[in-house]
Amino acid sequence: MIIRVSVFGIFLLFTLSVIAQPSLEEAYKSYLLGDWGNSLFEGLEIEKTSPSPQIFYLLGMNYLKLEDFPRARDYFRKVIKNFPQSKLYESSFIKLGDAYFLEEDFNKAILTYEYVLKNFPSTQFKPLIYLRLAQSYAKQGLWGKERVYIDKIKKEYPESVEKKYAEILEKRGFFFTIQVGAFSHKKNALRVVKRLKKRYPVYLVKERFGDLLLYKVRVGKFKERKRAEDIASSLIDKGYPARIYP
Question: Helix crossing, 69-82 with 89-102: angle to 10°?
């Protein structure tokens, strides 16, 4: 009788452990719902018993969303190193570049994106990579190189989603500027403009997002980022939520 109970107990524990084990589908569902913490927890549990390119990639994506960029890169590299035949191999290089981009290490981001273009010449992600390269060069104030990739998107992929974002970059202009506020009511934006115009080269930009029209207060058009950083610092000292674009 004791032996039967023990065997049954072991069977029950095994069954419960199987039931408790999250599935890859559940982890992906949590990710798609924006529950990145739970998706990460589920993914780490799955990794213990079932490591795969899918779970490594998912963990990398979760760490990317949670802004833990070094860990994100670690998992994308696991796909690259261990699963070169995986369908996620190429995407992992792009996400590796994104992790550098989001961490503002633009030189390494550029090198990674250019590696993809060189080694995957038929990649379906070419318009996205062009956009990332344009954004990376813009962040460094390399306006000529930014324009090269904007033009590539417009010429080679005129129907792509990326073309819309390329046009936004182009419309913004080839300079650094500082945004100190965005308002749905023009009069509120004009109050800020009035306060700033005696000391700063302030201007107003209108941008529409669907049915929402925003009035954005911006300061300066600088060719060098250092100058923009100095002005932004003085604005922050005065209590303005200054942010440099691009």
Answer: 160
Structure tokens at 165: 């974002």
Alpha helices of the chain — where are they, by DSSP H? Answer: 2-20, 24-32, 36-49, 53-65, 69-82, 89-102, 106-119, 126-139, 143-156, 161-172, 186-196, 225-237
Cα maximum dimension of the chain = 91
CATH numbers and ranges of domains, the chain: 175-246 (3.30.70.1070)
- Whole-structure pTM value: 0.77
User: Tens digit of pLDDT per residue, the chain (246 long)?
Assistant: 454 545 555 554 444 445 567 899 999 999 999 999 999 999 999 999 999 999 999 999 999 999 999 999 999 999 999 999 999 999 999 999 999 999 999 999 999 999 999 999 999 999 999 999 999 999 999 999 999 999 999 999 999 999 999 998 998 888 999 999 999 999 999 999 999 999 999 999 998 888 899 999 999 999 899 999 999 999 999 999 999 988
